[in-house]
Structure formats: structure tokens, C-alpha cells
Automatic annotation (TrEMBL):
Keyword field: Membrane, Transmembrane, Transmembrane helix
InterPro entries linked to this entry: DUF3098 (IPR021448)
Protein name: DUF3098 domain-containing protein
Database matches in Pfam families: DUF3098
Amino acid sequence: MWSNKHDKKFEFALDKQNYLLMAIGFGIIILGFILMIGGRSEDPNVFNEEIYGFQRITLAPMLVLAGFVFEIYAIMKKPGKK
């Protein structure tokens, strides 16, 4: 009766490959946020047009969104057969 509970081996909810894919997705999200950094002006009275560049307005949000979609895939992916 008690032996069944103690004989079970501890297992993670996801496979090693899932955690690796989640780390990659997290890296993509961090890269997107890093690309959003910058564009400020040294003088607060002068507006810097650099804040509206392609990198900050288009590329970085697409990378962050792609990272979140990749995270969903990494979590939902079924582990391979052992």
C-alpha cells in the first residue's frame, strides 16, 4: 500500500527540450526589449526623431510578440518518446 507512493520517481512537468525552447523564447523576448531601448535626447528641450525608427516601432515589438508565441509553442510541445 505505501510502497506505490514511495517508489514513484520525481519528474518535471515538461521535458528538457521544452525548457531549452522556453529559454530560447525568453532570449528572443529580451532581445526585443533591448532593441526598444534608446532614442532619448541629451537635451530635454529638444525632440529626437530617432525614437520613431524602424527598430523601435516595428522590429522590436514583432520580436517580443514572436518570443511570446514561441513560448506558447515551447510549453505546448509534447515531449518525444524515450
